[in-house]
Protein backbone atom coordinates (compact mmCIF):
# COMPACT_ATOMS: atom_id res chain seq x y z
CA UNK A 1 0.00 0.00 0.00
CA UNK A 2 1.68 3.22 -1.13
CA UNK A 3 1.08 6.71 0.07
CA UNK A 4 -2.12 8.20 -1.34
CA UNK A 5 -0.85 11.77 -1.44
CA UNK A 6 1.60 14.23 0.07
CA UNK A 7 -0.98 16.99 0.44
CA UNK A 8 -2.34 17.36 3.97
CA UNK A 9 -5.69 18.51 2.60
CA UNK A 10 -5.95 15.46 0.33
CA UNK A 11 -4.91 13.17 3.19
CA UNK A 12 -7.70 14.50 5.42
CA UNK A 13 -10.18 14.06 2.56
CA UNK A 14 -8.95 10.48 2.08
CA UNK A 15 -9.45 9.74 5.80
CA UNK A 16 -12.98 11.15 5.80
CA UNK A 17 -13.89 9.15 2.69
CA UNK A 18 -12.55 5.92 4.20
CA UNK A 19 -14.51 6.50 7.43
CA UNK A 20 -17.67 6.95 5.35
CA UNK A 21 -16.98 3.74 3.42
CA UNK A 22 -16.33 1.73 6.58
CA UNK A 23 -19.49 3.17 8.13
CA UNK A 24 -21.55 2.25 5.07
CA UNK A 25 -20.21 -1.30 5.17
CA UNK A 26 -21.06 -1.63 8.87
CA UNK A 27 -24.55 -0.22 8.25
CA UNK A 28 -25.07 -2.75 5.46
CA UNK A 29 -24.47 -5.69 7.77
CA UNK A 30 -27.66 -7.60 8.41
CA UNK A 31 -27.82 -9.71 11.55
CA UNK A 32 -29.68 -12.46 9.70
CA UNK A 33 -27.48 -12.74 6.64
CA UNK A 34 -24.05 -11.49 7.76
CA UNK A 35 -21.24 -14.03 7.56
CA UNK A 36 -17.91 -14.21 9.40
CA UNK A 37 -16.24 -13.23 6.10
CA UNK A 38 -18.12 -9.92 6.20
CA UNK A 39 -16.57 -9.16 9.58
CA UNK A 40 -13.16 -10.26 8.31
CA UNK A 41 -13.43 -7.77 5.43
CA UNK A 42 -14.47 -5.01 7.81
CA UNK A 43 -11.51 -5.80 10.09
CA UNK A 44 -9.14 -5.84 7.12
CA UNK A 45 -10.36 -2.42 6.02
CA UNK A 46 -9.97 -1.05 9.54
CA UNK A 47 -6.44 -2.48 9.82
CA UNK A 48 -5.45 -0.87 6.52
CA UNK A 49 -7.06 2.37 7.65
CA UNK A 50 -5.03 2.34 10.85
CA UNK A 51 -1.83 1.87 8.86
CA UNK A 52 -2.72 4.81 6.63
CA UNK A 53 -3.51 7.05 9.62
CA UNK A 54 -0.15 6.22 11.17
CA UNK A 55 1.65 6.99 7.91
CA UNK A 56 -0.09 10.34 7.59
CA UNK A 57 0.67 11.11 11.23
CA UNK A 58 4.34 10.34 10.64
CA UNK A 59 4.35 12.58 7.55
CA UNK A 60 2.81 15.40 9.56
CA UNK A 61 5.32 14.99 12.39
CA UNK A 62 8.19 15.02 9.90
CA UNK A 63 6.61 17.97 8.05
CA UNK A 64 6.51 16.01 4.79
CA UNK A 65 3.16 17.34 3.54
CA UNK A 66 2.79 20.10 0.98
CA UNK A 67 0.11 22.11 2.84
Protein architecture, described:
Helix content is 70%, strand content 0%. The chain is built from 2 helices and no strands. α1 (8-28) runs antiparallel to α2 (36-61). The longest helix has 26 residues, at 36-61. It is elongated, with a radius of gyration of 15 Å. The model has no long low-confidence stretch (mean pLDDT 93).
The count of β-strands is: 0
Global shape: elongated
The total number of structural domains is 1
Order of helices and strands: HH
Distance between the termini: 22 Å
Rg over CA atoms: 15 Å
| Oligomeric category | single chain
Which structural category do the helix and sheet elements fall into?
mainly alpha
Range of helix content: over 70%
Question: Which residues sit in consecutive blocks of at least 5 with pLDDT less than 50?
Answer: none
Q: What is the number of helices?
A: 2
Main pleated sheet:
none
What is the strand content? under 5%
Mean pLDDT: 93
Amino acid sequence: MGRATHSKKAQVTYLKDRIRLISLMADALDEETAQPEDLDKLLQMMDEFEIRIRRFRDDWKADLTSD
